Amino acid sequence: MRPRYFLSRTELVGHRQGWNALREPLFLTMHHNAADGAAVLHLPTDRTIVMGARIDLG
């Protein structure tokens, strides 16, 4: 029996009203550069399923 692994991933688009000029780019950069969960956990790519959502910050 071969186990399957499920991971979630979010993608942020747009911009947030009311954030100052430094907070938004910093947040988006940190989110974009976050480590891949499958790589961190050393999961096999042929048995890993990644599902995600796109979140509009606007």
TrEMBL record:
Listed InterPro entries: K_trans_C (IPR053952)
Domain K+ potassium transporter C-terminal: 4-56
UniProt KW keywords: Symport, Transport
Stated name of the protein: K+ potassium transporter C-terminal domain-containing protein
Species of the source: Luteococcus sanguinis
Taxonomic lineage from the root: Bacteria, Bacillati, Actinomycetota, Actinomycetes, Propionibacteriales
